[in-house]
User: What shape does this take?
Amino acid sequence: MRGTVEGIGDLVAAVQNVSGGHASMLAPQRVVLAATAVGLAGREGEVARAALPPVLISVAVLAALGAFL
Assistant: This one.
């Protein structure tokens, strides 16, 4: 059986991993790749601006969850 502290450490690590994954969606190379893949080459700024609100919300929720652990 796992101890309480070890289980919480695993959960904190999971929250950090997911937050990092979500934030990496705004990496310039990912935005360029996504824009090119869907035929929006040259409109990367629009793609990044559209992706920003959901990424910020998800990272904020995960940060709040992590703060309470």
User: Anything to note?
Assistant: The mean pLDDT is 85. The CA atoms of residues 4 and 10 lie 10 Å apart. Residues 4-67 form one domain.
